[in-house]
Amino acid sequence: MNGNVLLRHRVRVSGSGSRALLFSHGLGFDQRAWRLVAPAFEATHRVVVFDHAGCSAAAAQSYDEARHGSLHGYAQDLLDICDALALERVSVVGHSVGGMIGLLASLAQPARFERLVLLTASPCYMNLGDYTGGFDRADLEAVLAMMERSMLGWAQFMAPMALNDPSRPELLSEVESSFAASDPYTTQRLARLVFLGDHRALMPQVSVPALLVQCAGDVVVPVPVGHWLHEHLAGSELALLDTAGHCPQLSQAPRTTALIAQYLGAA
């Protein structure tokens, strides 16, 4: 792709230090999803936030039909950002599909990465055989069809499921607005990669240590997914938050920040 990768992904860098901490957001969000967590690490790390292709006001300029036809294209974007900033000793904090994108980047260049922190990430959302991903394929196809009919309808359906906490109306409004404002074309295509993809076979190849943060009340990525990942990612640690929802970086920002800091401090 042509153009400046830092402009294309609206990359913002803050903080200092020899270690880099790169935050990778999930479907329907952009870098603003990290505002309650990322600043806490500026004293110890070079903090990098960015927007995935198609996930910002510059959606059309950052998205390429062929490149972003798989999650590996998004992972290459992440690696290109690392190259542009000359980042080494990188740790990635990734939410949902942002975690899988960071994981795929670590498979491509394992020597570049120190740690992965995967917040409610999943290699496969479908129930397949004895694997519990959370959804039957027909349910996922129905969600994708809903997105094609109306992004607002999808947002109003998905946001309460993602938060799973009616006591936080301000967060519900924020998440719903973020989902509804997403670019329909690029978001729907990324959603198809996310919901119908299966990256389980790659998990035993991951060599970078990982912290898995799983929420007990997450109906999007249920607890069995966290346990499955823990069993198949060598050297991983599993932290179970006794909380609702799929977005701990928003709903449980202080606890999530503390978990990340503790894990990175032990590196």
TrEMBL record:
Q: Could you tell me which species this protein originates from?
A: Azohydromonas lata
Question: Any coiled-coil ranges, and where?
Answer: none
Look up keyword Repressor and say if it applies. Answer: no
What are the alphabetically sorted keywords of the record?
Hydrolase
Q: List the taxonomic lineage.
A: Bacteria, Pseudomonadati, Pseudomonadota, Betaproteobacteria, Burkholderiales
Name of the featured protein:
Alpha/beta hydrolase
Q: Which domain of life is it from?
A: Bacteria
**Keyword Transport included in the entry's annotation:** no
Q: Where is the AB hydrolase-1 domain?
A: 21-253
Pfam family of the protein (one): Abhydrolase_6
Spell out the family assignment given in the record's similarity comment: Belongs to the AB hydrolase superfamily.
Q: Molecular function terms in GO for this entry?
A: hydrolase activity
